[in-house]
Amino acid sequence: MNLPLPEVRRPGMIGTASVLEHTRTGLCQLDASGRLLYVNAAAAQLLGAEPARLLGLRIQDLVPLRRADGPPRQSESVELLLALREGRAATVEGEPITRIDGQVFQADCLLDPVRVGGVLDHFILSLVDVSKRWRAEEHGRRVRCELEQRVASRSAELREALDELNAVTERLRELSAHAECARENDRSRIAREIHDELGSVLVALKLDLSWLGNRLQDRAELVTKTASMRRLLDNAVVEVGRIITDLRPSILDHQGLWAAMEWHAQEAIRAAGLGGGIDLVGVSGYGPPEGALATAAYRIFQEMLNNVARHAHATSVDIRVGLEDGGLEIVVEDNGRGISADALSNPRSYGLVGMYERARHFGGRVSIAARGKGGTRVRAWLPFEPAFPLTAHAAMEIEHDSPADL
Ligand SMILES: Nc1ncnc2c1ncn2[C@@H]1O[C@H](COP(=O)(O)OP(=O)(O)O)[C@@H](O)[C@H]1O
Ligand SMILES: [Mg+2]
Predict the structure, then answer these.
(1) CA–centroid distance, residue 342 to ligand 2 (Å)
(2) pLDDT confidence bin for 14, thresholds 50/70/90
(3) Residue 192: is it exposed, middle or buried by C-beta count within 10 angstroms (0-12/13-18/19+)?
């Protein structure tokens, strides 16, 4: 190759010239204004022309500002050009450089000013072709960018779907709360109607039967018949009372939640033959929750005790009702076989789901767990601020009242 080698003045320079010509790093000498004074063989090859054609070209003209794959650049934002203008050193990675044939390659560039007597005399510019690496990185960047865009658009779709799902869930919850409220109203109405209509008919029948019995003193077999009819009627009265209480215990409406819970706990414990009892920790001094909140608390409590009776195989149950953390706390602990993880996570455990949802509707929560020592602990908490402490007289009345009968 015909190269304009630097003047050989000192012994040993021929060795330096050989190094310059045989290194694979492109080396250029530029004058203070950026014109090429010297290019080594590697630089000539990179720039795509014989050194003679390159000398005198301004390096600034080989740094493209307009790029096919990106927005145009301002020369002030191109570090290499800025450093040339300011006469200082620069290290630039992946700078695009235009070859003589117009093609562009990416080079890592080192620019170093050389001063003579403190004045800028020329620059040394080294160029290493990194197009391959750069293309690989560029490809990586593009793939990453595409992936990020796809992830972003999938995330947006998912977020939308999730919002929709949340909205549907919320509507279902409202619907279920509404249905529950309607069901509760129906139960109250049916209980009232059975009480008023059937109750009064049964009482009238009993009176009529007594009247009849009194007039049949001399007809032994008819007296026996009326006595058996009276027994049947008495059973019917008890049965009707039970049905009414199952539908809606009147004690809840007449004496409030504390009394209703105490009564129900005693009934449930007696019916299931369990040990243990209910402790109303300091609540009887306070007016109980009323209306829908009282109904929800009562229904949750009923489900807790039903589950103990039906599933726990327990011999004893401890019930605690108290005011905790600005709310009403109900804890039912049995010493039975313990609830299974399957039952807890089963979406078809409708009794449990009903408890969760009822509490949630009022801003409360229910937690259920198997106890380490065996058995199950169910805790419900419902936000509730008792409006006022009851007077001592009213509290005593509640404690001594017996549950309302039919
Ligand atoms: N106190 C408990 N002890 C043991 N298992 C329980 C207890 N409470 C509930 N379970 C289990 O959880 C399941 C789901 O309860 P629940 O949703 O109330 O449904 P259901 O009472 O109608 O069977 C029950 O079938 C039972 O296996
Ligand atoms: Mg149940």
Answers:
(1) 14
(2) low
(3) middle
Query: Which residue type, as a one-letter code, is found at position 161?
Result: A
Per-residue pLDDT band for 1 (boundaries 50, 70, 90) equals: very low
Q: Please state, in angstroms and rounded to a whole number, the distance separating the CA atoms of residues 216 and 194.
A: 31
Q: How far is CA 167 from the centre of its chain?
A: 14
In three-state secondary structure terms, 71 is coil
Best mutation site among 315, 349, 358, 377 for ligand 1 pocket (most ligand atoms within 8 Å of CB): 349
pLDDT digits (tens, 9 = 90+) for 323-352: 999 999 999 999 999 999 999 999 999 999
Kindly provide the residue ranges of all beta strands, DSSP E only, lying in 117-200, ordered along the sequence: 119-129
Is 371 a pocket residue for ligand 1 (Cβ < 6 Å)? no
Distance (Å, whole) CA 376 – CA 364: 20
Query: Is 49 within 8 Å of 37 (Cβ atoms)?
Result: no
pLDDT at 91 over 80: yes
What integer best gives the mean pLDDT of the chain? 90
Which SS3 state, helix, strand or coil, does residue 52 take?
A: helix
Q: What is the C-alpha end-to-end distance of the chain, expressed in Å?
A: 119
Query: What is the radius of gyration, based on Cα positions, of the chain?
Result: 47
How far away, in angstroms, is 303 Cα from ligand 2 center? 6
- Least Cα distance to 321 among 290, 291, 300, 350 occurs for 300
Q: Which CATH architecture has domain 256-400?
A: 2-Layer Sandwich (3.30)
- Name the residue with tokens 């608390």: 297
Domain ranges in the chain are 13-129, 131-248, 256-400
Tell me which architecture the domain covering 13-129 has in CATH: 2-Layer Sandwich (3.30)
Residue 95 has pLDDT above 80, yes or no: yes
